[in-house]
Each structure stands twice: as structure tokens, then as C-alpha cells.
Amino acid sequence: MNIVYTAHFAKLPVHTSVRSKAKRMIDILGAIVGLIITAIVAIPVAIVTQLDSPGPIFYSQIRCGLNGRYFRIWKFRSMIVGSDQFKHLVINEAKSNHIFKSENDLRITRVGKFLRRTSLDELPQFWNVLLGEMSLVGTRPPTPDEVMCYSNHHWERLNVKPGITGEWQTSGRSSIKDFEDIVSMDLDYQRKWSITYDICLMLKTLKVVLDKSGAC
Q1: CB 120 within 8 A of CB 41
Q2: Which DSSP letter does residue 139 get?
Q3: Amino acid 1: pLDDT
Q4: Contacts of 186 (CB under 8 A, 6+ apart)
Q5: Above pLDDT 90, what percent of the chain?
Q6: DSSP assignment, residue 156?
Q7: Judging by beta carbons within 10 Å of its beta carbon (0-12, 13-18, 19+), is residue 102 exposed, middle or buried?
Q8: Share of the chain above pLDDT 70, in %
Q9: How far is CA 19 from the centre of its chain?
Q10: Once rounded to an integer, what is the mean pLDDT over residues 188-215?
């Protein structure tokens, strides 16, 4: 399937942010700091996770990154073990199959709710940033099954690296259930992109995290 994606994106110009050495340097420095924080947080997270829901501390999933390339994203586990097997039992509250949203997903553990509310579950993604699979700021990385439902204009959102944060994450992510709104924000980010704009979104993200707003 990646071959199909590559053929599609071969026709499109490379976005400026992908070639930016300054953006990559900021990503590397940010990832190093983020991984130090992740290492400190990992021990208490592991302890409370095991007490609440025994199993792996980390959760990984295949996502589509720049130009639709597959990569494995990492998070602190916030759901029960084997949660993907029960996804069909949860009602998708989004307005299309392009994303999956459920405010009362029973698969989320008690500790998982706290991790999501504080965005601590996202910390392991700094490893993806260090590897160059993600950026500190970008678009939301979709799953392969979501991409299979894409129309032509949806592909444009994959012209940049996916980010730990971005327009969608800083604009009340849990309240946005229309995929077209997410696509609009992702394309708007691409048009507005600059190092300064990335820094503004990172500062806005910090405020959102401290306020614990927009998390699901």
C-alpha cells in the first residue's frame, strides 16, 4: 500500500517545512528534552498503570506519516490490553469514517483518562520525532484504514510530517468531530507555516496542556 502512496505523492511538490534544517534542528533539540522528561515520568506511570491495568506500559500503532509512509507511533498505554480488538463495539461519534472519536470509550482505563487529560500519554512520541518520523509541530497522523477512505483533497494533509501538536490539537481536539474541519486546519497550517508559527503553536500547546483543555 505504501507503493500506491509513494506514486501519488511523487506528483506533488515537497513542502518547505520538510526541507527546513532549522525545523529539523528544533525537532532534535525538543525531542532530546522531551525524552528526558519521558524517562523521568515513565517510572511512576509504569507503577500506576500496573496497579490499574496490568500489562505493557507502552502502546504502539501503525500510522501514516509524510507522503503516506508507514511508521510505528508510540504512546503510554491509556486503554485496556488488546483494546483494538474491541474497537468495533464502540460507537464512532465522528461524522465520517476518516477519524474515530468517542467521548465515553469504555476501553480507556482510569489511569488512561488522567494520561489523556494531561497529554502525558503523548510523551513517547518524542522518540518518533528524534527518528525523523514526526515533528514537534505538524498534522495528526492517520491510521492506514482511515487513509483508505480518503478523497483526493484529503491527501494534501500528508504533504508535511505529522506532529505531536498542531492546529487541531490546540483548537479543542476532543470537540472537533468533523474530519473536514481537521483537513481545513491541516491545510491552513501548511499555508501559514514558518518557524515562528511553529513556535507560536508550541506555546499555545503548552497553555492548552496546563489548562487541561481540549483533551479526550
Answers
A1: yes
A2: B
A3: 47
A4: 139, 140, 156, 157, 166, 167, 168
A5: 57
A6: G
A7: middle
A8: 85
A9: 21
A10: 87
Inter-residue contact 205 to 213 (CB < 8 Å):
no
Locate cell 508535511: which residue?
Answer: 160
163 close to 155: Cβ distance less than 8 angstroms: no
What's the alpha-carbon Rg for the chain, to the nearest Å?
17
How many C-beta atoms surround the C-beta of residue 100 within 10 A?
14
The pTM of this model reads: 0.87
Q: What tens digit of pLDDT does each residue of 98-107 get?
A: 677 666 788 8
Q: Residue for cell digits 513517547?
A: 124
Residue 180, by phi and psi: left (phi above 0), alpha (psi -120 to 50) or beta? alpha
Cα–Cα distance between 190 and 16 in angstroms, integer?
9
What sign does the CA torsion over 203, 187, 67, 154 have?
A: positive
Helices (H), the chain: 2-9, 16-19, 21-52, 110-117, 125-131, 144-147, 179-192, 195-211
Task: Residue count of the chain, please give it.
Answer: 216
pLDDT(131) > 80: yes
Beta bridge partners of 74: 60
pLDDT greater than 70 at residue 215: no
**What SS3 class is residue 109?**
coil
CB 85 within 8 A of CB 163: no
